[in-house]
Design brief:
The structure is a homodimer.
Chain A (H helix, E strand, L loop, with lengths): L3 E5 L1 H11 L6 E5 L6 H10 L5 H10 L7 H8 L13 H13 L2 H11 L5 E4 L7 E5 L4 E3 L1 H5 L9 E6 L7 H9 L2 E4 L4 H9 L4 H7 L3 E5 L14 H12 L6 E5 L5 H9 L9 H7 L2 E5 L2 E2 L5 E2 L1 H10 L1
Parallel strand pairs in A: 1-2, 1-7, 2-3, 7-8, 8-9, 9-10
Antiparallel strand pairs in A: 4-5, 4-6, 11-12
Helix pairs in contact in A: 1-3, 1-14, 2-5, 5-6, 8-10
């Protein structure tokens, strides 16, 4: 059975895991721990827990999709839309927060939730250290905390020069072990600066990826994100990954080459977001193998199709 | 196997159920639905659910006490001691509230929680109607909402003349069925006017108890409660039960006859609460059989000992 490690967070990881769990049970999700907004941010600030949102999504993705497990899955994904002090909170985040309070440990809380939700595979926080994500914009402005980068309050036309952590964070030991033992390491899909790269800012992670004998696969975003990756082409995404990895170690890059619908294109354009252009020549120069396929589905938002993406990864 | 129905709410029912579940699996807890304070009151006011506190306690009492179930039990009994808008909330109450939001029904929420917590027996809300408990004091003052009776803001030296509901409530159909089918019906232990009698204010309940062929057993309180049962003797408790039952149908009354410790006596006296005197002659006149036994344990507060109480009930 292939040992697959995915690195990310957010809905990109959620979709990828839902697809991959059909192909292998030896799945490890390594997730960013720098979320600072919304329900997860409140849990982090008021209870001192690691921000639970990304862990929650990955646990859900890997949980048994049986009828018997349905209610627990619904509980875990429920978000309060009313209630003083409750509105906006994810019940799953509170669930993880209370488990941390009971067990006294973020890791034990995740393991307990994993058991309760009957998950296949593992979800690992990239670090147990508390740090905040920061960004330096092209004009030198420093943006502090992940949520202010993710939902920009600054001029979103300004490009991000670099992201960094406000204090050093070291990789959780099992993260390094999982990366070392992996047959395939999948970076992405997800928001480049707020879901993917934050993992690469953690001490030990880029080195472990570089040293691992695993096939390293980067899944490029389908759309640009305003305030993060304005006008990015596929090679720009790859270039940023390599910049933070500290070496050109990606073996394969997966891109969606199906044109998004005119309707979606129009809606995204209103938000200054566009389909990522696959600039094959520039990618070819990096030596990275390019895999282009129809890989999207379009419910309300454009997402990677879990099955198609997992299928492409398994075939590499 | 004996079919046992208990009627109450609060920590009295919790203790009794923990004892009784060792003797029979055919246990039904009928619980008051008029709690209006604290976490349960907020859930009730802001989400429109039935107040979940008494249901939660009974579910916990009946849940499997295995190592495997420990974390879920701890989750269900966890109370937030911090967090904006969360502090004071019981996680178990939120759990039941979210289950109601997901399933759309209070009953389905209780059944779902019962399944998740692996309970033996059933927990039934006495009514699905929304009503508030009120009390009329001896000076004619009307107190509205259960929490204001339970934690009195009025002069607690005034006796309660009567309690009533602010709007009619009918018994949940399964409550009537359970009472009819019971071999034994246990009323109490618990706070007389806020946990026990409220069940008897629900239309259909007193009639069903009277008509049932079950042995009817009333468990008398060990201590008086200031603001509720000042200076009550055992026969006063029994008299109030009979008043609200509308007929003298109790067969057996169980009283604790072990003297509480001097230390507990002193602490309770500071709160104007005293051990209930068993006035045997007055009880004998009612024709009710009196069972007196050592039935208490004293951790921080004086409670009925689950095993001793259950044992006494099973022997009747």
């Amino acid at each position: 059975m292939q040992k697959i490690v995915i690195i990310g967070g957010g809905s990109g990881s959620y979709n990828l895991l839902r697809g991959l769990k059909r192909y292998t049970q030896d799945l490890t999700a390594i997730v960013t721990m720098f979320d600072s907004g919304g329900s997860a941010g409140i849990c982090r600030d008021e209870f001192g827990v690691l921000p639970p949102g990304d862990v929650r999504r990955c646990l859900l993705a890997l949980s048994e999709e049986s009828k018997h497990n349905l209610l627990l899955r619904q509980l875990f994904s429920y978000r309060f839309d009313k209630g003083t002090g409750l509105s906006g909170h994810s019940f799953g985040n509170l669930f993880l927060t209370v488990l941390k309070e009971i067990t006294g440990s973020d890791i034990e809380a995740i393991e307990a939730a994993a058991q309760i939700l009957k998950i296949k595979g593992r979800v690992l926080p990239v670090t147990l250290d508390r740090a905040h994500l920061c960004a330096e914009l092209e004009d030198g402005t420093i943006i502090q905390r992940e949520t202010n980068i993710d939902i920009p309050k600054h001029d979103p036309n300004l490009r991000i020069k670099r992201v960094f952590l406000d204090s050093p964070a070291s990789a959780y030991c099992e993260v390094i072990d999982a990366i070392r033992a992996a047959d395939k390491i999948i970076i992405g899909p997800g928001d480049l600066y707020t879901s993917i790269i934050p993992n690469l800012l953690v001490e030990g992670v880029p080195e472990a990826i570089k040293d691992s004998k695993a096939k390293k696969i980067f899944v490029c975003n389908v759309m640009t994100k305003f305030g993060e990756t304005n006008d990015f082409k596929a090679s720009d995404f790859l270039g940023e990954i390599h910049k933070y990895l500290g070496s050109s170690c990606v073996d394969v890059m997966i891109c969606n080459d199906k044109q998004v619908s005119a309707e979606a294109e129009r809606r995204y354009a209103e938000e200054h977001q566009f389909q990522v252009e696959i600039d094959k020549d520039a990618i070819a120069k990096t030596g990275v193998q390019l895999v282009c396929k129809d890989m999207i589905f379009e419910p309300d938002v454009i997402r990677h199709n879990p099955i198609k993406l997992a299928d492409a990864i398994m075939k590499i």
